[in-house]
Design a protein that fits this description.
- Two copies of one chain form a homodimer.
- Helices cover 42% and strands 17% of the residues of chain A.
- Chain A has helices at residues 45-50, 60-65, 69-74, 78-82, 94-100, 126-136, 154-174, 192-205, 221-232, 249-256, 267-273, 305-309, 312-320, 324-350, 354-366, and strands spanning 4-11, 14-21, 24-28, 30-33, 56-58, 88-90, 111-114, 121-124, 140-142, 181-186, 209-212, 240-243, 262-265, 276-277, 284-285.
- An eight-stranded parallel beta sheet of chain A has the order 4-13-12-11-10-9-6-5.
- Chain A contains 15 helices and 15 strands.
- Chain A is an alpha/beta fold.
- The A-B interface holds A 37-39, 41-44, 62, 66-67, 71, 74-76, 81-83, 292-293, 295, 309-311, 313-314, 316-318, 320-321, 323-328 and B 37-39, 41-44, 62, 66-67, 71, 74-76, 81-83, 292-293, 295, 309-311, 313-314, 316-318, 320-321, 323-328.
Chain lengths: 373, 373
């Protein structure tokens, strides 16, 4: 069944929302862990749920190449394939193919590129992307858009959003699934006129939800926040808004305050594999010598499996020794940290206290000299 | 508390036994998974227990170097450090240091070798090995013995067992823990006179249990079985016997029939990382193309978490994509396979039907042309 979003409350521009899925109620704003290859690295579906995950992501590009969308379809779709009964969102594959393609290989038809696994020449088009995602059977699917470098000129972006809009339209024309939601993607860089034009034209096409693209590609925080503001401003209140690829804790708070409902990022699991853990007082590197005999949990009061059962000294040992159970414990902690943060954000929307919460969070996490406040 | 073994029944030379630990009853014969760095690769303690694990192993050499036995001691011992409340056995470190030392570096004092992590010169002696193991706080600890290559001459082995016996004595002299069991190790290659001499002299020293060393170093199966027979024959019935480094399913059965109670091997987890799974009909390689669209479990009727929730196609995908969740699922399956096999072995000791069970196992696992029957 198609997931139905309901806006519950607004506090300034921050939005509290909810939807039902498989009989379970989920609340937004929400952080979505990334499971590139139909697995959130090192974790089981049970661990993800225990860590507070709701929607999770899977990557169209990776699954298209391996094991192939037809295999996933024959398995009964992504949910059955990977044994996850919560909601799943897929990206369009655009982000990966744009990083593999040369400028001359980006045409109005689609993007020509070489398969990173075997060098085969491939073409990804808006139609193909939607077709793959329909076969994967995710609950929320993305339009194929032009992923633009930052910075790009107004001139380039003006042409680029025309292509993105054309591709959104072509994707929508072949989309014929009753159980999935199709999102349009707002591009336009840091230019309000282009973000506005792109957003309004997408809204005209009436998508099930809207994503904000073109962020998290090297721009500074004030620029990212502008890009988001210039997008959400022109989006309808009754539809979900998803900010792609953003997961830095402060960015979750700042962008919720700018009207975003959904976020995804590989950072909690990638940081984990490198031995980093989020805490309210900032990120720590567990490999640091000072944790060698630290027999306390990563963060006092944290309710995650890692913090309830293991010490920094043990997790440090595992990471230093290259044991994957270490990455697994830190992944559980980091995802729990972000899902707990989203829970606090939702509480503070309910209490109309998000700004105070943000200020307190910054003070604890960054100290007194944070520059982007 | 010290673990107390009780022999419950014999069926020919096969032995059914039991011991209590932390209020829980454990039965032998038993297979013990290996957790080199105080973690059974990719798995949590809870998963190990669900897979039927009882005693698990940890490696003295690795933990001595990293994080260091003093860190583990300060953590409250291995059980607290790694959050495992079942019994733990440690090896002596001998196997690793012998593989790193040149012949001239093996002296009566001990073994000189270079730390594989940083090249530092180190010396491991019988006293040091016992000291480290006492600090680690494992429940069953091993004497430091000379690990001999196969084949070795009668002449060399005759001198070697004198050293092994001297080292066993020196280790026993410094061993002063009331909560741990200390095992002596029978060496002597494939020579009955040497195995007998070594076993009888160890028994005279009165260890808490006995290990059989010098197997699983390249010898053929009939030679291994002889080595075991020549050892168990001279060991007391009321003490545990542990065959080190053996984990091939048929070897578990054959050596239980020769009087062994405990086994360990890295194979279930190492095979898992390479995509191999045990089944009653032999090992399978999950990477094989034929499993690409095989939406059945690894083994029908298997009660493990992997088989209850995932298909061969999904696990194949994970292994091919290099995702550790694949190794984790296969590790769970492979350990469960071996602990289930041990359970069947125990049932067949109870029913005096182990030989028939062995014959049926071989037929299913290897087919009709198995050569070592």
């Amino acid at each position: 069944m198609k997931l139905e979003y309901k806006l519950v409350k607004k506090s300034n521009n921050a939005r509290l929302g909810e939807f039902k899925y498989n009989g379970k109620l989920y609340e937004t704003p929400m952080f979505m862990p990334v499971g590139t290859n139909a697995t959130v690295k090192t974790l089981s579906p049970e661990e993800l749920k225990d860590a507070g995950a709701g929607i999770i992501l899977a990557n169209t590009y990776h699954l298209w190449l391996r094991p192939g969308e037809d295999v996933v379809k024959k398995a009964g779709g992504l949910h059955k394939f990977m044994n996850y009964d919560g909601p799943i969102l897929t990206d369009s594959g655009g982000f990966q193919v744009f990083s593999l393609a040369k400028p001359k290989d980006i045409t109005d038809e689609g993007v020509h590129f070489k398969n990173h696994l075997n060098g085969d020449s491939l073409l990804l088009t808006p139609e193909k992307s939607i077709d793959i995602q329909m076969k994967l059977g995710s609950d929320i699917i993305m339009s194929f858009d032009e992923c633009v470098k930052w910075p790009s000129t107004h001139d380039y972006l003006e042409k680029s959003i025309k292509r993105t809009l054309d591709w959104a339209k072509r994707g929508k024309e072949v989309f014929n699934s009753k159980d999935q939601m199709l999102f349009g993607i707002v591009q336009g860089g840091e230019y309000e006129d282009l973000r506005k034009e792109c957003a309004l034209k997408l809204v005209e096409m009436d998508f099930d939800g809207y994503s904000i693209g073109g962020t998290s590609v090297g721009e500074d925080k004030p620029t990212m926040y502008k890009m988001v503001e210039y997008s959400t401003k022109y989006l309808p209140e009754d539809k979900l808004r998803y900010l792609m690829g953003v997961g830095d804790p402060i960015d979750l708070i700042e962008n919720v305050m700018r009207g975003v409902d959904l976020f995804d990022c590989v950072s909690p699991t990638r940081l984990a594999r490198h031995g980093h853990a989020y805490t309210k007082n900032g990120k720590i590197n567990i490999k640091n010598n000072k944790y060698k005999e630290d027999f306390t949990s990563i963060e006092e009061g944290c309710n995650c499996y890692a913090c309830k059962n293991y010490t920094k000294a043990y997790i440090r040992h595992l990471i230093v020794a290259g044991e994957t159970f270490g990455a697994r414990l830190l992944s559980i902690h980091n995802i729990t940290f972000l899902t707990n943060l989203m829970k606090e954000i939702r509480e503070n929307i309910k209490n109309d206290s998000l700004e105070e919460f943000r200020d307190k969070f910054i003070l604890d996490y960054y100290g007194e000299n944070y520059e982007y406040k």
